[in-house]
Structure formats: C-alpha cells, structure tokens
Amino acid sequence: MAPLQWAAVMVWFPQALGLRVIVAGLGRTGTMSMLTALQRLGYKPYHLKSVMLNRSHASAWRAVAEHHMEAAEVIEMIHHDGFDATMDNPMCELVELQLRLFPEAKVILTTHPRGAKGWAKSFIQLMQVVRLQVANFSLTYPNILQFVPVLRDLTAMRCLMGQETMGLRPCELIYESIEKQQAMPGWLEEQYEKHNAYVRAKVPKEKLLEFSVQDGWEPLCQFLGVPVPSMAFPHVNDSASMQRVGLVLQVIVYGWAPAVLLVLLMIWWCCTGRKSTRDKKD
Questions:
Q1: Collapsing DSSP states into helix, strand and coil, what is residue 86?
Q2: Cα dihedral angle (86, 90, 92, 95), rounded to 10 degrees?
Q3: Which residues of the chain have pLDDT under 50?
C-alpha cells in the first residue's frame, strides 16, 4: 500500500505554538531517557505517554489511522495543548509533515546504542507486551483490557507505524513483526535502517543531530543552543520498564475475575450475615 499522504495537508499555526524539536528516532531508541532530558531542559515533549493520558488525542490518532481525520489536525491539537517537542510513535513517522509546518524546528534522530540488532531485540520485547494487551478475550485468557476505550484507540493507532518511513502495509510493523522476524531473520533490522535513511534524506544536515543517549548532555545541548545541566544525563531502563508493564498486564488479565468474584462473595456474606442477625432478633 502506498505511504500515507500526510505531507499534502498544510495548516497554518500561530508562531507562539511553534514546534521547536522533533525527535525522529523510533521508539526503543532511548526515547524515555530523551523525554526526561528534554523536560529538564525546559521543553514540553509530546510522547506516546501523552496519548495514553489524553483520550481525545488517542481517539484523534485512531481517526487518522482510519482515514477520518488528517494528521495535521492532530498536530494542531498537540500544540494548542502547549507541547513544543514531539517524539516516539506515531510522531516520529511524520518528520516531513512537521518540518513543512514548522521549518525552524530542529530534528534529533535517536539511534540505539547497539545499532539495528539491539533495536530489533528491544522492539520484539515491546511487541510481546503489546500482544498481551491486544489478545482476544477467551476463557483461558480473559483479556478485559481490549474493552478499555483508550487502549482500543491505541490498538488502531499503532497501525500507522511503519507506513510513512518504511513503506509498510497498515499494521504490518506492529502486529506482524514477530512472525516476519522469525521467517526472515534481519527483517526488523532492515526496517530500522529504512526509517533512519528516510529521516536523513528528508532533513537538511544543518538541522539534524544523530544522537545516542550514551552521548550525554554536551552534543544535545550544543545542538539545541542551551546550557548543559549540572545533573547527570537521565538513563531510563526501558527493558526493565517493559518487564514491569508486562507483569502488570498479566496481573490485570488474570486477576480481575477473581477480584470481582471476591467482591461479590463479600457482598453476599454481608447481606446474608445481616439477614441472619435480623432473623435471630425476630
């Protein structure tokens, strides 16, 4: 399927809402560390976490994925909410559109410290967690998560990923990547390189910084023209975070039914206990 035609949409934004930084690296390239770093430098970055915490944004991205809304309209929402930097999926897909709307913005291409192979391994770990959330409800896996509205929106939104910069079919990168990697070893590494090549081709060299979180504050602050903070550069352990998220999801999936049953039993016990007390008094 042809890439999405975001860049054809042009919207005028007030200068006060101008986007200053575009972090164009894929998720799992240290974006959580970059999120914290940009916050410490005084920016208000828009991350996938922002989507999860804002139902209107999640539903808007779903509308984009289902071709009911243009991506530029969501970017307008983002900036009216005060964000001045973007990062993570799906924003890292929209580099060209964002630069056309905000030509003064600077672009940071975050790369995985261990290159394409390190990214592929980390991405598979993320996809295994995603599958815990999107799996169909069954007696053996009572997945109540798929009925949560914001999570249903995210399930649809993820289908945007990989279309613009990698030329993939909708949903192919997220919901088929594990099988693709097993059948064609190196397939994910190829997508990583395609994404990075796309960013390099679309962004003027003077506006682009290729950055690994292991590089620390100096190259980042020099590129952005801001002072170097006195505290250490933040390093968020994404792998450990993913393991915790996966555990929490499984606790929710397998724990909600026993929890509901326990509450019903407690209600029944309270009601029958009171009835017995009344009967004895009578």
A1: strand
A2: -90
A3: 1-17
The model's pTM is: 0.83
Q: What angle do helix axes 149-157 and 55-65 make, rounded to 10 degrees? A: 40
* Domain spans, the chain: 6-247
> What is the separation, in whole angstroms, between the first and last Cα of the chain?
76
CB atoms inside a 10 Å sphere around CB 23? 28
Question: What pLDDT, on a 0 to 100 scale, did the predictor assign at position 146?
Answer: 81
Q: Taking the domain 6-247, which CATH number applies?
A: 3.40.50.300
Name every residue whose Cβ is closer than 8 Å to that of residue 187 and which is 6 or more positions away in sequence.
177, 180, 181
| Beta bridge partner(s), residue 45 | 85
Q: Are 89 and 164 in contact (CB under 8 A)?
A: no
pLDDT number for residue 242: 62
Question: Which helix (H) or strand (E) element contains residue 200?
Answer: helix 187-202
Predicted confidence (pLDDT) per residue in 228-237, tens digit:
999 999 988 6
Antiparallel, parallel or unpaired: β 208-211 and 21-23: unpaired
Give residue 5's pLDDT: 42
CB-based contact 21:37 (threshold 8 Å) = no
